[in-house]
Specification:
Blueprint lengths: L2 H22 L4 H16 L3 H8 L1 H9 L37 E10 L9 E6 L19 E5 L5 E7 L4 E2 L5 H8 L5 E2 L2 E7 L6 E7 L18 E2 L2 E2 L6 E4 L2 E3 L9
Parallel strand pairs: 1-11, 1-12, 8-9
Antiparallel strand pairs: 1-4, 2-3, 2-7, 5-6, 7-8, 10-11
The protein binds benzoic acid and fe (iii) ion (FE).
Fe (iii) ion binds next to β7.
């Protein structure tokens, strides 16, 4: 199918479904004008990435990766920064000296889809602080904290030390938050740690690990929780640190499309 033919069918279908909803819900001119102003407001507030990642990305992820081999992925979201540094041992994500939150160490192995360890795989890790804020996006946090990349050792093993993040709400003071409140929905995401695992010759795995004790696991505004991604941090014996393990299996890279 040519690009024009696909655009015709896809855009035509989306518009057709909007027209159908207008008819089914007997939409008024007042509601149309409110929706038009809201769409303008989302653009002016720079919230299109936020809106799309909260309400649409999970469906794209399920569609594109529904049949993926290896570990489960989920949405990327809007708070990834690609230029985090590669950390040196002991692989602690940078944090403030008085960083709040339970200390946690997570470890595991990166393998291919058949269980063979992958040395030198990269884990790009980022998460919110104990108040649910992300560095690089909330100006009250120092740049670069709670973000970093870690490489696997010769046996494909990795270790990351950090603090447990808190659940957070998507921003509630802009048009996306206004829409969520207008519809009476919850704005919360459960506590999670983002990871992108990549290695040459393999499909990058964009995923999130959800903390089992978190609220909102069954009511995530972004609809991105999967059972396989829930981890169980537990107190390590003789330590005040929590620990959990998680192994990642990467699928082989899909063959390049013929040009
Ligand atoms: C996140 O996982 O950080 C996220 C995902 C979608 C919307 C907002 C945040
Ligand atoms: Fe997040």
């Amino acid at each position: 199918m040519t690009d024009t033919a696909r655009a015709d069918r896809l855009i035509g279908d989306i518009l057709g479904r909007i027209h159908q909803a207008i008819a089914e819900h007997d939409v008024t001119y007042e509601e149309f004008q409110t929706a038009k102003q809201w769409l303008i407001d989302v653009g002016e507030a720079g919230e299109w990435p936020l809106f799309l990642d909260v309400f649409v990305e999970h469906a794209v992820e399920a569609q594109v990766f529904g049949d993926r081999r290896g570990s489960q992925g989920t949405i990327l979201g809007p708070y990834h920064l690609p230029d985090a540094p590669v950390l040196e041992a002991p692989f602690e994500l940078p944090r403030r000296p008085d960083e709040a939150g339970d200390r946690v160490e997570f470890t595991g192995q990166v393998t291919d889809e058949h269980g063979a360890p992958i040395a030198g795989a990269e884990l790009d890790v980022w998460h919110a602080d104990a108040k649910g804020l992300y560095s690089g996006f909330d100006p009250s946090l120092p740049e670069g904290i709670l973000r970093g990349k870690v490489l696997t050792d010769a046996d494909g093993r990795y270790t990351v030390r950090t603090i447990l993040p808190a659940p957070y709400t998507i921003p509630e003071d802009g048009p996306t938050g206004a829409m969520v409140h207008a519809a009476g929905w919850s704005p919360w995401r459960p506590a999670h740690i983002h990871v992108i695992v990549s290695a040459e010759g393999h499909e990058p795995l964009v995923t999130q690990l959800y903390i089992d004790s978190s609220d909102y696991l069954d009511n995530d505004v972004a609809n991105a929780v999967k059972d396989e991604l829930i981890v169980r941090p537990r107190r390590k014996e003789g330590s005040d640190e929590l620990g959990f393990t998680y192994d990642f299996a990467l699928a082989q890279a899909r063959a390049a499309a013929p040009v």
